[in-house]
Amino acid sequence: MQIDDLVMINKQYGHLKGNDLLIKIAELLNNAGDKYPDSLTARLSGSEFVLLIKSITPELIDSLGIHLQDKLQHIAQTLQFNNDDIAHIGIVTTHSHRDMAELLSEADMALRLAQQKGINAYHIYDNAQNNHIQTHGSEEWNKIIIEAIEKNCFQLYFQKTVNADNQTSFQEILLRLNYKSQLISAGVFIPMAEHLQITRFIDRWVINTILSKIQAGTKSVYCINLSRDTLQDPAFPVWLKEKLSLLSTKHQSQLVIEVPEYNVIRELAEYKNLLMMMEPFACQFSIDHFGIGFASMAYLRDIKIDFIKVHGSYASNIQDNNDIINYMRQIINTAHNLDIKIIAEGIEEEKDLEILQAMKLDYYQGYFIGKPEPDEQ
Q1: According to CATH, what is the number of the domain 138-374?
Q2: Which option is the CATH number for 2-127: 3.10.20.740, 3.90.1150.10, 3.30.70.270, 3.40.50.1000?
Q3: What is the tens place of the pLDDT at every residue in 260-282?
Q4: Which residue, among 44, 186, 41, has the nearest Cα to 123 in the 3D structure?
Q5: pTM of the model
Q6: Where are the chain's structural domains?
Q7: C-beta pairs of 157-161 under 8 Å, 24+ apart in sequence
């Protein structure tokens, strides 16, 4: 578990409240560990803690993550912080033959992915298919990723989004890394790229590749997800503006730029600046993973976007869940009143799709609609 910017907390709220936060997080982890024999809580650094638990069953790991996430929000509210988002959690499982350096590397990857997911989020790292590349250090990862960009070692995958008539409307871009005859998932290399602050270079590679496909005559509309690193890059809007100015209006409209809601909120000024600079162009904008951790949708009135993609957890839990159904209706009404179209993601079952279609969403995506397929070119 890592506290988000402890230095800023000390500066904004004072060292006494910063110390209170450290004490409460230590108590939280100690109390969580007390439920299991032979557990150990330790402080790794100024802002990092670790909880080691022996013999926890896989069924309980997710419950532990949810418990810690809920308690972090409670701590933030108890200490009267302006923002509930105070820490993130990376979880990894192990066996007796694994060494500590390997475990900490995997836990760090899980933490980086959790930091992309939402407020006080946790992420469970899947090391079932563990291989050597996953435990490389930062310097090795930096070399691998930069070399992949320079030598075009990434593999594009496309997952379709359909409209109410089941016609393909968009192709969402997913990424894999080709490395020594292995195909490495984004869940492995993107967290480390985020940590190294080099995802901006990956984003530019993806955009260049897709724009080349568009100029070559493809008719598809592509959704490209931007990282927080790219949003923070002041040169990016200028770079994208130059790229789009070389395209016709029709070709510009084949690009949908997606940013996860969590990053939109954290970098709202930068996101508004990007939208403003892209106004002369026909490219479209979407907010991805919408609805996780943010009670208010008021900020949507201050920006002009084309789509919101509701987080897949809503689609997968919508059956017989009136709370989610009511919340979805609220999202739909608010968005449609602002002339924003709604995309449902994470649709895994036919029954979920039927319920969502009855609610008059605009577009649908998920494994039931279509699994990611590799680019054939």
Answers
A1: 3.20.20.450
A2: 3.30.70.270
A3: 998 898 899 999 999 999 999 99
A4: 186
A5: 0.77
A6: 2-127, 138-374
A7: 157/372, 157/373, 157/374, 157/375, 158/220, 158/222, 158/372, 158/373, 158/374, 158/375, 159/365, 159/370, 159/371, 159/372, 159/373, 160/365, 160/369, 160/370, 161/223, 161/343, 161/363, 161/364, 161/365, 161/369
